[in-house]
Amino acid sequence: MKIFICADMEGTAGILTWSETERDHPDYPAYGELMTREVIAACEGARAAGADEVVVKDAHDSARNLIAGLLPDYVRIIRGWSGHPDSMMFGLNEGFAGAIYTGYHSKAGAEGNLLAHSFTTRISRLLLNGEVVSELTLNALCAARYGVPSLFLSGDEGICADARTLLPGIGTVETLRGFGASSDSLSPEAARKAIRAGVEAAIRAPRPPLPAIPETLEMVIEFNTPNDAYRAAFYPGAKTHGPRAVSFVTSDLFQMQTARQFMLG
Fold it and tell me: Which domains does the chain have, with CATH numbers?
């Protein structure tokens, strides 16, 4: 059995500020290890549930965050950005039994995490068919395109609530919740124990249903600056959608992923 883990960072227990997530900042090394330890806990949970191979996509910022030398021997790691439209889910295919998400954070515009955003801090919101969505929304739809169920997510309180609404039956571990520029977090060790147990339980549980991929997909990206919106509007099929916003409509999820990849690039 193969399990795919998409690892982000801003929802890792103990993390608070941008400096702790930026690999060139002096604050970063200790928090890069916290991210790695949560991923290891997820790998251990998957192994205990019967996984013989775990593929981990380092999906935060530079995609060079995880301390590869600490990972178990049954793990493969995908580092860097290939440019493929699957983006954070690159490496996933039909051969996986499930997708796991660690270190996830609230969507752009949310107030439950100081570091809330959607794919890039250059946008204020990302909407799909009129609803503001998170990175999880598009990543879970990507997994569904391959027929792979989303089984478990760890991250802040807001993204866990979104996950349970979007993906009934998904297992979650709430690592932290934000209050303005502060946070209330589990201790890293408590988070690891909960993630390890949560992943094992989620894989052993009956498979949750795949999220439905809408027949029509209207993506609206609201940028922070008009110059970014102006540039994105030149993507084939994209249209200006009010101040600082660009829309793209398609019936094909992969086309939408491709549009997002280039419009945000």
Answer: 2-107+135-204 (3.40.50.10780), 217-263 (3.30.1360.130)
Pair of tokens at residue 254: 């992969």
pLDDT of 265 reads 87
Compute the distance between CA of residue 257 and CA of residue 248 in angstroms, rounded to an integer: 10
* Cα 55 to Cα 52, 91, 113, distances in angstroms: 10, 8, 28
- The token pair that represents 17 in the structure block: 């500020």
User: In this structure, are residues 44 and 72 in contact, taking their beta carbons and an 8 Å threshold?
Assistant: yes
pTM score over 0.90:
yes
> DSSP for 230-262?
HHHTTSTT-EE-STTEEEEEES-HHHHHHHHHH
Mean pLDDT of 6-24: 97
Distances (CA, A) of 39 to 103, 227, 232: 8, 37, 34
Q: What is the pLDDT of residue 261?
A: 97
Burial, 111: exposed, middle or buried (Cβ in 10 Å; 0-12, 13-18, 19+)?
Answer: exposed
Spatial contact of 106 and 158, defined as CB atoms under 8 Å apart: yes
